[in-house]
């Protein structure tokens, strides 16, 4: 609500004038809140506020001096900076130009939200004399409240950002809003949008939305923009254009599968090794974020079938590479090319397996890998220098089983070790020598834990075999003596005994 101020006598008692000043205040939360002293039934002609000049545009000093006289002299650095910002906005305000806009007929006061200790002394406030025809033509709120002719006084209290309110008023005098907004931060635009929405400044709303649609956002700003637009609940046509960059149509499982499959095939077939490694790391990191942010359900619905399609493709490529390696004579082999091909396909397989494990889908691959009898035979027929990258897949699975990240039956665990453990022993030296990516302790711990999950007779068989190998190979063989100690204590020291049957007695109860 806004009350008119028609010219009347200024010789009324002081208490009456104070009451009239309270009555002309218009307060709306988020810029304007209802005034507890304002009676809706009283809208008679009231005298304009003191020092209101309807016949001439005031200077910057005159606009601020009366209001600053009413507030205490703040000593905080924040208040000093606030004064400087207000002075900067008002010094360039177009409503000073009386030749272009005519005489001012509205006294507009903007007051900040009081801070602690300011309830008694009053918060920071500033007044400006502006033009009714501009405010009424640009803002549907002011058009409704400033219908009466003559001088008006409007007071906007408890503002979160006084400077932003002043800037919103200045924008009403401009026909080039887009130019005025250029260079502003997204947070300032959102504040102006909120104010424009509160006072129904439609051109301001439109300009802010067009600005937000055109400028880049940081990820933090992105969340803020979406949150603010949801809160403001503006016209859908305006906000839809802004949010198109972050809100897509609901994706289906087949669409996610299609995109992931296309990206993955591109990665697996990449010719540049450095780019292939970077894109693998990128996709894996993005998928992991999806898993971490949605504990119970992944938003990116990549199907098990898609992942295992890629697994079978990698395994087929591995078999093809090893078959070619066994068919060529030593003199015909290009050692570097052959090593690179096998290493690339083994690395591709490890990447897909990492995704499966991370998405809790790795159980099926353990059985698939344990069943690769043909591949294991081919693996044994070529020199270790060519094949050792393949044993990293076995090590990867043992580490995951040892951590409890993959849960498979004991038959599958034993089949895995039966097929690939000998190969892991043989390749371990080259695995350690080939690069820094191999963590010996991690492999030894994973292998130990995997063996110790098996029935005691199978533990004994595997660990006695390891004992002989370790004596002959030393550091070239995984050191799993901790597992050996645990098995020994289980078998010969602790010797747990568990009753195999429950004793149940059945008897008749006499009537």
From TrEMBL:
| Positions of the BTB domain | 104-181
Q: Which domain of life is it from?
A: Eukaryota
What Pfam family does this protein match (any one)?
BTB-POZ_ANK-like
- Could you tell me which residues belong to the region Disordered? 1-22
**Signal peptide interval:** none
Example GO BP:
protein ubiquitination
**Keywords on this record?**
Ubl conjugation pathway
InterPro entries listed in its UniProt record = At3g05675-like, At3g05675-like_ankyrin, BTB/POZ_dom, SKP1/BTB/POZ_sf
Give the record's pathway: Protein modification; protein ubiquitination
State the function annotated in the UniProt record.
Answer: May act as a substrate-specific adapter of an E3 ubiquitin-protein ligase complex (CUL3-RBX1-BTB) which mediates the ubiquitination and subsequent proteasomal degradation of target proteins.
Protein name, per record: BTB/POZ domain-containing protein At5g60050
Give the species this sequence originates from: Sesamum indicum (Oriental sesame)
């Amino acid at each position: 609500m806004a009350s008119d101020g028609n010219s009347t006598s200024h010789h009324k008692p002081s208490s009456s004038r104070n009451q009239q000043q309270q009555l002309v205040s218009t307060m709306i939360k988020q810029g304007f809140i209802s005034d507890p002293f304002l009676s809706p039934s009283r809208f008679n002609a009231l005298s304009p506020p003191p020092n209101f000049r309807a016949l001439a545009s005031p200077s910057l000093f005159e606009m601020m001096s009366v209001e600053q006289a009413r507030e205490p002299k703040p000593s905080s650095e924040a208040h000093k900076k606030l004064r400087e910002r207000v002075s900067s906005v008002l010094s360039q305000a177009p409503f000073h130009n009386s030749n272009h806009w005519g005489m001012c007929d509205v006294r507009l006061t903007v007051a900040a939200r009081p801070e602690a200790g300011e309830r008694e002394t009053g918060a920071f406030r500033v007044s400006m004399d502006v033009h009714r025809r501009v405010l009424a033509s640009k803002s549907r709120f002011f058009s409704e409240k400033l219908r009466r002719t003559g001088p008006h006084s409007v007071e906007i209290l408890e503002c979160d950002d006084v400077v932003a309110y002043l800037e919103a008023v200045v924008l009403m005098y401009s026909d080039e809003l887009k130019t005025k907004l250029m260079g502003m931060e997204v947070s300032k635009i959102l504040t102006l949008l909120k104010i424009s929405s509160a006072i129904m400044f439609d051109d301001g709303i439109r300009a802010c939305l067009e600005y937000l649609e055109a400028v880049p956002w940081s990820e933090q700003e992105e969340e803020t923009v979406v949150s603010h637009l949801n809160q403001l609940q503006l016209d859908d046509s305006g906000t839809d254009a802004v949010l198109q960059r972050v809100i897509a149509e609901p994706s289906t499982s087949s669409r996610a599968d299609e995109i992931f499959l296309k990206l993955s095939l591109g990665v697996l077939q990449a010719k540049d090794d450095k780019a292939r490694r970077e894109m693998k790391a990128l996709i894996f990191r993005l998928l992991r974020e999806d898993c971490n942010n949605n504990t119970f359900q992944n938003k990116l619905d990549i199907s098990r079938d898609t992942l295992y399609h890629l697994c079978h493709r990698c395994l087929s490529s591995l078999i093809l590479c090893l078959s070619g390696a066994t068919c060529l004579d030593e003199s015909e082999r290009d050692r570097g090319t052959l090593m690179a091909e096998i290493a690339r396909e083994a690395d591709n397989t490890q990447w897909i397996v990492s995704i499966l494990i991370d998405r809790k889908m790795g159980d099926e691959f353990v059985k698939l890998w344990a069943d690769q009898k043909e591949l294991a035979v081919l693996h044994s027929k070529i020199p270790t220098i060519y094949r050792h990258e393949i044993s990293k897949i076995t090590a990867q699975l043992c580490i995951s089983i040892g951590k409890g990240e993959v849960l498979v039956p004991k038959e599958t665990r034993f089949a895995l070790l039966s097929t690939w453990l000998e190969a892991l022993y043989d390749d371990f030296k080259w695995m350690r020598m080939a690069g820094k990516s191999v963590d010996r302790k991690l492999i030894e711990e994973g292998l130990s834990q995997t063996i110790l999950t098996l029935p005691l007779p199978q533990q004994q068989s595997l660990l006695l075999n390891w004992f002989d190998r370790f004596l002959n190979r030393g550091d070239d063989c995984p050191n799993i003596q901790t597992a050996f100690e645990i098995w020994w204590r289980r078998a010969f020291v602790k010797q747990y005994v568990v009753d195999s049957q429950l004793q149940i007695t059945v008897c008749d109860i006499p009537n």
